[in-house]
Specification:
- There is one protein chain.
- By secondary structure, this protein is an alpha+beta fold.
- The protein is about 25% helix and about 25% strand.
- It contains 9 helices and 25 strands.
- The strands form 7 sheets. An 8-stranded mixed β-sheet has the order 8-7-11-5-4-14-17-16, with no helix packed on it. It has a 5-stranded mixed β-sheet with strand order 19-20-21-23-22, with helices on one face.
Length: about 475
Amino acid sequence: MQRAPLAVVAIVAATLIAGCDDDATTITSSTPPSGAASAPAAVDYAIWQAGTSKPTADKLYPQHGTAALDVLHYDLKLEWQPPKKRLTGTATLRIRPTADAAELKLDFKPYQLDKVTVDGAVTSATVRKEKLVVPAAVSKDKPITLVVAYHGKPATTPIPSHRSDVEPLGLTITKEGGLWTMQEPWGAFTWYPANDQPSDKALYDIAVTVPAGWSGIAAGSLVTRQGNTFRYRSTDPMATYLQTLAVGKYRKVSAKGPRGIPLTYWYRPGKDEKFLPSLKKSPAFVSFLEKRFGPYPFPTGGAVMVDSESAMETQQMITMGGKKKKFDRELFEEDLLHEYAHHWFGDSVTPSTWTDLWLNEGWATYVQFLYSQSVLEYSDKELEDYLRRADADLRKRLGPPGKPRAANFAESNVYLCPAAMLKELNDALGDEKFFALGRAWVQTQKNTQQNRASFTAFVNKQTGRDFTKLINSWLDSKSTPRPA
């Protein structure tokens, strides 16, 4: 997510551009449980092995997600009908239970359930208070296939934050009848049944059918377009908050990034042209990041414009908000670079829980400052002074970044305070060793989930020095730590 907005930040006499439950609504599958069912055909779950995760219960938002299930693969077949404002979907989930249980439970908004099956057998299911409950006994490490057919009008869900650019989370219907979504820390469950937490990364296949003349855009790589159906595939595992969906009258621009990486920019004619010159700078942004942190971690990249005030690092297809009172090109481009930086820090290497959001945002924010510094040419001393001033104010108002408050998701303390920590680490190591550390972290931990303990251990091992005290003090102190 783009950095939390700040009031005014001055450096070198210039401004640095720097959920709640539903009511007791119960929906039951319209198809009753069947009697004796024939044995389902054998499924080779090994083909989705790359989607294996170690789900962790999220202490900050325990109402979302579960550690009892590891979704290996989501296969979503979706159709959007603008006149009816109806989304029709069939979601096929390949799931590895992590414990024996009498039922399956996933996050899901109340859509009308048309049919639910487990390993081919029709079963009853209910959706209540944003949970899909399927009464099917499962065994630890014995994968199953859950298929959910549904339809209905999408609805958003609240975000637990006080940022000035916050909007409801999840699938949003535009005035023109299109769709877009941003869903951090949750919101995927507003359009498909999901284990909606960061520690469960999965593979994806998504087919989106839209009206003639419209386009459907999702995270991952565009595999085929057949008529009005757009098919996307993610061969690298993805957390649910990094998935995206946009439907509208889009036009596509194709480009090449460093090493020939395919890049795609989706914009709406008559609405988004002013953003195109900035989007077309993507190859330079990716090059800036590759020089410091190694190869871009995915096979394709790009961005899609939507009617939001924010932006999101959605995997392989950044979601950029174009709903601004005034277009600030410098700010837009810094936000775009910030989201590309997340493809290394957050998308490829993902935090296990939302307590460690600093691990995403601290890196992306510090890298954004390094880019800004290369453009505006302010000194390290000026950056240091600004970060320490901002850090002191944010810790006083929002607390330390390593102990975020549930009601203040993604506010400025988890961006700037850890960025200040990384500046201290950079100063202690020097540029060569610091970037070698960052490069090793994202390249050796690719497609994994990490936390503070694993990051600290990695830093100490990689550098041959003990930075535990520095890291802990910057993450936990109620006041700004003194310079190392």
